[in-house]
Every structure is written in structure tokens, then in C-alpha cells.
């Protein structure tokens, strides 16, 4: 492979063998993680577009051309933050330098923080704008402060892992409680994604175990699992939009 060197990255915490990373003069990349992150990014984009088409072109709209589904705008923001996080994830695994690492960590915690807001609003069926602001404001302030702290004061990876893990744990619990209490027709999808995805996400955050083989590390395993989970997740979002729209239309008749 012309112009490339093969580097054996020996883990400082385990003795289970080398992890292969390809390096060039200016950047390095983990091929499996990069490829999987790119696939997930494409999948998230497809999920967002399919949701967009559903709520604006397939489901009924209000007289003012807005959707009946009260969480449409929130899911648009979620999709943008999610795709941004996966984009920087792919970049980081392509070029592992301080800047890309900060962008990756920052975009991920922003996505996780907003996911907590969305989980809270949907689970408790909060539709009043003032109430939404009251719930979102403290989370946004906390996440923004954390991102500024990481980027401009102390790039503490351990602290970031704890913050991301805590935010993930809280939203997992919220979704699980709601999935248990609700009679939503697609609650099984929520159970599957939250239990499997949440568990794997927190596992990677707190325990980056030794590579399995020479190419696959903990991040790669999480990325691989995120592909089917991402598909099921957006399927749940579309089902939720249909369910809420149908319920609201029945009330208006």
C-alpha cells in the first residue's frame, strides 16, 4: 500500500495483543470504525428523510400546513445533531488529532443532551411551549457549559465519559418507564433500541475493552450494533408520528 505505514497500536491497559491502525504522514484511520460510522450517517439521513416525507406528504396536515404531530420540529433537530455527531465520529476515526477529538466529543454530548430533552418531552407528553423551555433550558445550559469546559479549560476525557454516561442513563430510564406504562403499538421497538443501544453505549463509555482481532475495537462493535438499532429507531419515530396524528384526527372529528 503505497504511501502508507501499518502501525501496531499496543494498548496500555491490556495485554491482549496489537490493534492495527493505518497511518499516513498527516493522518491515521481505523478502517472498520470509519466505514461503519459512514454507513450509520447514511442510515440516519435516510431515516430523517423518510420521516420528513411521512409527516409532510403522507399524513394529514393542519389547515395552516403544519403537522399534527407535535414533536416534528424536535425530531428534525435531533436528526441534525445525530448526523453531525456521526460525521465527526467518522472524521475522528480518520484523523485522530486533538481538534477532531474535541469536535467528536462535543458533538456527541450535544446530541445526547438533546436526546434527553426529547425523551422527557415525549414521555411526559409536554406540548406547552413554556413548559418545554423550562425543561430544555437547564439541560442546554449544562451541556453548553460542559462543552465549553472541555474545549477551552480542561479536556478531561474521564469527566466527559461520566457526563455522557449519566445523560444516557437518565434518558434510558425515562424511555423504559414510558414504554412500560404506555400502550403505544410500537413500544416493543422502543424496548429493543433503548435496552440494547443504551447498554452498549454506556458499556463503551465506561469500558473500552481490548480489540477483538486486529481491526475491531469496542467502538467498532458499538458502531456495528448501531446500524440495525438506528433503522428500528427511526421506524419507531415514524410509527409514533402516525399514531399521534391518527389519535388527534379522531379527536377533531
Automatic annotation (TrEMBL):
It is a multi-pass membrane protein. The chain crosses the membrane at residues 32-56, 68-88, 103-121, 133-153, 159-178, 190-207, 219-237. GO terms for cellular component: endoplasmic reticulum membrane; Golgi membrane. Its main location: Golgi. Keywords: Golgi apparatus, GPI-anchor biosynthesis, Membrane, Transmembrane, Transmembrane helix. The keyword Transmembrane applies. One of its GO terms (molecular function) is hydrolase activity, acting on ester bonds. InterPro entries: Per1-like (IPR007217). The keyword Repressor does not apply. One of its GO terms (biological process) is GPI anchor biosynthetic process. Belongs to the PGAP3 family. It comes from the Eukaryota. Involved in the lipid remodeling steps of GPI-anchor maturation. This is Post-GPI attachment to proteins factor 3.
Amino acid at each position: 500500500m503505497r504511501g502508507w505505514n501499518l502501525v501496531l497500536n499496543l494498548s496500555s491497559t491490556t495485554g491482549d495483543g496489537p490493534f492495527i491502525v493505518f497511518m499516513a504522514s498527516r493522518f491515521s484511520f481505523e478502517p472498520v470504525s470509519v466505514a461503519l460510522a459512514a454507513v450509520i450517517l447514511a442510515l440516519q439521513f435516510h431515516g430523517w428523510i423518510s420521516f420528513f416525507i411521512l409527516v409532510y406528504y403522507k399524513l394529514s396536515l393542519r389547515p395552516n400546513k403544519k403537522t399534527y404531530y407535535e414533536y416534528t420540529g424536535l425530531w428534525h433537530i435531533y436528526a441534525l445533531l445525530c448526523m453531525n455527531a456521526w460525521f465527526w465520529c467518522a472524521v475522528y476515526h480518520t484523523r485522530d488529532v486533538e481538534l477532531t477529538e474535541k469536535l467528536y466529543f462535543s458533538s456527541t454530548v450535544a446530541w445526547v443532551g438533546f436526546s434527553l430533552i426529547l425523551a422527557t418531552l415525549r414521555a411526559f407528553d409536554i406540548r406547552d411551549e413554556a413548559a418545554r423551555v423550562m425543561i430544555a433550558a437547564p439541560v442546554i445550559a449544562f451541556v453548553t457549559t460542559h462543552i465549553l469546559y472541555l474545549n477551552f479549560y480542561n479536556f478531561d476525557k474521564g469527566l466527559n465519559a461520566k457526563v455522557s454516561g449519566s445523560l444516557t442513563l437518565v434518558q434510558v430510564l425515562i424511555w423504559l418507564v414510558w414504554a412500560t406504562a404506555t400502550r403505544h403499538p410500537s413500544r416493543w421497538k422502543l424496548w429493543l433500541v433503548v435496552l440494547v443501544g443504551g447498554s452498549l453505549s454506556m458499556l463503551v463509555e465506561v469500558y473500552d475493552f481490548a480489540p477483538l482481532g486486529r481491526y475491531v475495537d469496542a467502538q467498532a462493535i458499538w458502531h456495528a450494533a448501531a446500524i440495525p438499532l438506528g433503522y428500528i429507531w427511526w421506524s419507531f419515530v415514524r410509527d409514533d408520528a402516525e399514531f399521534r396524528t391518527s389519535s388527534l384526527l379522531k379527536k377533531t372529528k
